[in-house]
Amino acid sequence: MAEQHTPRSLIVTFYGAYGRSAEGPVPVSALIRLLGAAGVDAPSVRSSVSRLKRRGFLLPARAADGSAGYALSDEARELLEDGDRRIYAQPPDGGQEPAWLLATFSVPEQERHKRHLLRSRLARLGFGTVAPGVWIAPAHLEGETRHTLDRLQLTSYVELFRGGHLGFAPTAEAVARWWDLTALAKQHEEFLDLHEPVLRALQSGPAPEPEAAYRDYLLALDSWRRLPYADPGLPRTLLPSGWPGDRSAAVFRELHTRLRDTGAKFTEL
């Protein structure tokens, strides 16, 4: 996970954390102020908002004061609600013999664009690859997988199966083939390198002012929100010793507890 807080990503993160609870559309002037606190200049805010509007994520609307503003589309709200379930979830308890969710699919050649969409969505949900055309994830992702495939109207191409791994290699060895654990561990470690010092400063110093709390929370959430998808809650008993995922999740949860509500005071329009 390269630490790149792009303006567009930060705007999405802002709406996920604060903007969707605003009373009415968020004025453009407020977006410029709030993203400015995270180091984004006004031209970058405007151009990124325009791209999000073209994608259908944001809808132009008049704010309460009559100024130009932007509201979330219905699809964007659904996407953010889907993200909540993963981003703020407690790590699942791992067992000695976890259940797995398998996905296979068949797409006619004339609809091969849907084959690419299926592959990309399964990867974004955190599925690993057992073999060409066979994808695997922890079984607790069944509900989210069904919901995502149904929302994208892809269920007619997919078969889902639930079961255990029966061999022949030890399951821990198989998991290391299905997912790139080295890359996942690096993503967790990069998150910790950047945001654990912020938490230590909070633990040993005074409570932050609203602007500082807002900035630190927005940056932490923007870094964190992709991690629970890259690492979809793999059973800890099957991961290498010293796995950094639990620590990075604990750091994010404490930053969320300490910063989010204080940061909300800075966003009041």
Descriptive labels:
alpha+beta; 12% strand; 269 residues; four-stranded antiparallel beta sheet
Walk across the major sheet and give the strand order. Answer: 5-6-4-7
Oligomer: single chain
| Total DSSP E strands | 7
Distance between the termini: 33 Å
> So what's the overall shape?
globular
Number of helices: 11
* Strand content bin: 5-15%
Average pLDDT value?
91
**Gyration radius, in Å:** 20 Å
| Secondary-structure element series | HEHHEEHEHEEHEHHHHH
Largest sheet: 4 strands, antiparallel
How much helicity do the residues have? 40-55%
Describe the structure.
This protein is an alpha+beta fold and 269 residues long. 54% of the residues lie in helices and 12% in strands. It has helices at residues 7-17, 28-36, 42-54, 74-87, 112-125, 142-151, 171-178, 181-204, 210-224, 227-230, 245-266, and strands at 26-27, 58-62, 68-72, 100-105, 128-131, 134-138, 158-163. Strand 5 (128-131) and strand 6 form a beta hairpin. Helix 1 (7-17) crosses helix 9 (210-224) and helix 8 (181-204) packs antiparallel against helix 9 (210-224). It is globular. The two termini are 33 Å apart.
Structure at a glance:
With 269 residues, this protein is of the alpha+beta class.
Secondary-structure topology with pairs:
Blueprint: H1 7-17, E1 26-27, H2 28-36, H3 42-54, E2 58-62, E3 68-72, H4 74-87, E4 100-105, H5 112-125, E5 128-131, E6 134-138, H6 142-151, E7 158-163, H7 171-178, H8 181-204, H9 210-224, H10 227-230, H11 245-266
Antiparallel strand pairs: 1-3, 2-3, 4-6, 4-7, 5-6
